[in-house]
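Subject: Protein record for review, amino acid sequence with backbone structure tokens
Why sent: The fold of this protein is of interest and is recorded here as tokens.
Enclosed: The protein record, placed directly beneath this head.
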Amino acid sequence: MYKVARHELLTVMRRRREDPFERVPEPTALLPRTDALIAVELRYDALQAIRRLPQRQREVLALSLSGFAPAGIAEILNITANTASASLKKARRALLAAPGFRQETS
């Protein structure tokens, strides 16, 4: 079952070549055009940064964002939980260092 899920995830990731400008909302009085453009630019930067990650880091990140814990990721990818955790940590570091990314503080 996990091999099927992994295959489907990889298929979706390969096919997903979004045009970040296709979903730009029309400007309204509540949403100034500049905010919409900034959001699109940030999304585009995020997609580019994710695409630059090595395949293993993209897989681990996608599975993590889908709700899997490192142990579950390890089982799906046939790696150790420590390797899954390390790959996730490297992916997050790479994204935070990429242009257009910043760590949110709350």
